[in-house]
Amino acid sequence: MKTKPGEVWLADLGLAAKTRPVVIVSRYDPEPPRALVIYVPVTTQNRQSRYEVALPNLGFIADDSVANVQGLGALPTVRLERKLGRLPANLMELIKGSLSFALNLDESIQ
Questions:
Q1: What pLDDT is recorded for position 46?
Q2: How would you class 43 by CB atoms within 10 Å of its CB: exposed for 0-12, middle for 13-18, buried for 19 or more?
């Protein structure tokens, strides 16, 4: 299964037989060494932090949702159930900025 950054998928995260939307943040790789994707979960619990990016009503996710970069994870592509849609480029830039903050990529690690 080929996924692209910015796609929103319904995924089985193994949480009480519940699926939830996730934003794919791993780079597109037509021949990855493993069948894994890196994702950020979408949630309705907004804590108003720099680790979250507010998502507008896009028609394929719940109103008042956020991409929570603190929940960054990886999962096998077989756990992706179906593609819901794709985020606009400006939202992906905000998610990348939030990931950069969360992972301290803008500063040297001491």
A1: 86
A2: middle
